[in-house]
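User: I'm putting together a teaching handout on how sequence relates to shape, and I'd like one worked example. Could you take Ureidoglycolate lyase from Rhodobacter capsulatus, show the sequence you're using, and then write out its predicted structure as tokens right after it?

Assistant: Happy to. First the sequence, then the structure tokens directly below it.
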Amino acid sequence: MERLMIEPLTAEAFAPFGDLIDVLGPPDRLINAGLCGRHHDLARLDFDAEGRAGISLFDAQARTLPHVLDLVERHPLGSQAFLPLDGVPFLVCVAEDADGVPVRFRAFLTAPGQGVNILRNCWHGVLAPIGAPGRYAVVDRIGPGANLQEYPLPVPLLVEG
């Protein structure tokens, strides 16, 4: 089994696959009579013309490290954002595409409270909270059409921290 090492999650490192969603620095603007800071437009949400943005709640079972990555998926009709409700860190495995096959895998681990938006058509692992079960608000495409493609890996990867 090949090994895949977890690398630091930064906006720059994750940019080819999506967006890091985090409260970094001061807010972009103050709202509600100055009592609330708004960190504005943190993700490149992208849905086809027949879909719309929807919010779902996911309740995911805990995983541990090292983690066996044996299945990835992608969503050709829309992006998918994961926002932790419990502050549980989660593993984010992503890959480039080569003619419908995931290649050049990378792995990241969120810090408590960080979320990610995964771009449309980007191969990624399933939701994997590390160390404890996690609940997540997920913003993704709701609508007609096949928006899920799964790819079982012929040779699983062992993700290590």
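A couple of points you could highlight for students: The longest helix spans residues 11-14. Residues 60 and 141 are 19 Å apart (CA to CA).
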